[in-house]
């Protein structure tokens, strides 16, 4: 099992979110709502995997990714995820329960658009027909998507509390910082803008004493700032390793950071979909099997 597949659920969830928004922009209300359910489920599955990983790492999760084991039901994943979060003990219990209930209710509601919606859930009912879309359905998607996304981001913040405490990674480690441990000003800006300054400050006050935050901030502060000469050498090495020697001459700090982020995210995304037996799966066996089934089923 490939260890890099541990990020598969996160990257796959973004695919569903992107296609959900694209469908909404195209006026396909039903598809846009139907795609929110797998986005929500994959997001929670990623968090569940992250916070429940045991001494064997992500072995159980990888068994599911490769079809060798079933995943827990959604409600259980929500409960277990929050139960295992180190940040949970520092948060308001009432708000945590509200987070759990809102995720479960959202999942139940979204299931209607993947299964059999009742009359009052039908998009055709909301559109008052099946030939056009209504302002009501457009706004309905916005309200649902915004609520779901907001609760998912709250969940991610609790799972990765250092996301609220941005640091200057470039000054400490150049363009090759510890992956997935710290946020910088660019990552942090998106969370701050979406959740709002008041929510951010409330969460910071609650989570600043969380063990994950204290330990990682302590390690960060123990590392010395790198001199400019070393930063330039690290940039040159990065460009060589990633076959981007044409960018070696870039000296602007922001340009280096953003370019390295793009490369690292692309590598992370690609590696999440790798399979050991990829060559064996690139043959015609699957297609031939489908065609054989079709030949039996096409006629009465």
Largest β-sheet summary = none
How much of the sequence lies in strands comes to under 5%
Instruction: Count the beta strands.
Output: 0
Mean pLDDT: 87
Q: Report how far the terminal alpha carbons are from each other.
A: 43 Å
The assigned structural class equals mainly alpha
Globally, the shape reads globular
CA-based gyration radius = 23 Å
SSE order: HHHHHHHHHHHHHHH
The percent of residues in helical segments reads: 55-70%
Ranges where pLDDT stays below 50 over 5 or more residues in a row are none
Structural domain count: 2
Number of helical stretches of at least 4 residues: 15
Put the structure in a nutshell.
The protein is mainly α and 300 residues long. The chain has helices at residues 8-25, 29-34, 36-52, 59-65, 74-84, 93-111, 123-127, 135-159, 169-173, 185-195, 197-207, 211-222, 228-241, 253-271, 285-297.
């Amino acid at each position: 099992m490939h260890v890099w597949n541990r990020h598969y659920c996160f990257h796959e969830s973004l695919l569903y979110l992107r296609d959900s928004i694209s469908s909404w922009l195209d006026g396909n209300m039903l598809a846009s709502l139907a795609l929110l359910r797998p986005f929500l489920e994959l997001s929670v599955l990623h968090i569940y995997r992250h916070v429940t990983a045991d001494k064997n790492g992500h072995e159980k999760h990888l068994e599911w990714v490769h079809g060798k084991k079933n995943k827990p039901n959604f409600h259980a994943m929500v409960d277990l995820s929050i139960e295992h979060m180190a940040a949970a003990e520092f948060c308001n219990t009432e708000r945590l329960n509200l987070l759990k209930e809102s995720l479960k209710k959202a999942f139940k509601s979204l299931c209607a658009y993947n299964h059999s919606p009742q009359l009052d859930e039908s998009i055709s009912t909301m559109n008052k027909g099946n030939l056009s879309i209504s302002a009501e359905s457009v706004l309905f998607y916005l309200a649902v998507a915004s609520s779901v996304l907001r609760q998912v981001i709250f969940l991610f913040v609790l799972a990765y509390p250092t996301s609220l405490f941005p640091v200057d990674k470039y000054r400490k480690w150049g363009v090759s910082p510890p992956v997935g441990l710290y946020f910088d000003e660019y990552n942090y800006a998106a969370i701050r803008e979406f959740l709002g300054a008041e929510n951010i400050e409330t969460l910071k006050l609650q989570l600043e004493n969380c063990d994950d935050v204290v330990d990682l901030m302590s390690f960060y502060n123990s590392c010395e700032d790198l001199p400019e000469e070393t930063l330039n050498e690290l940039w040159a090495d990065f460009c060589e390793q990633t076959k981007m020697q044409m960018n070696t001459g870039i000296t602007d700090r922001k340009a280096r950071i953003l370019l390295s982020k793009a490369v690292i995210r692309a590598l992370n995304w690609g590696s999440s979909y790798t399979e050991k037996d990829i060559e064996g799966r690139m043959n015609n066996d699957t297609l031939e099997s489908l065609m054989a089934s079709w030949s039996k089923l096409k006629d009465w």
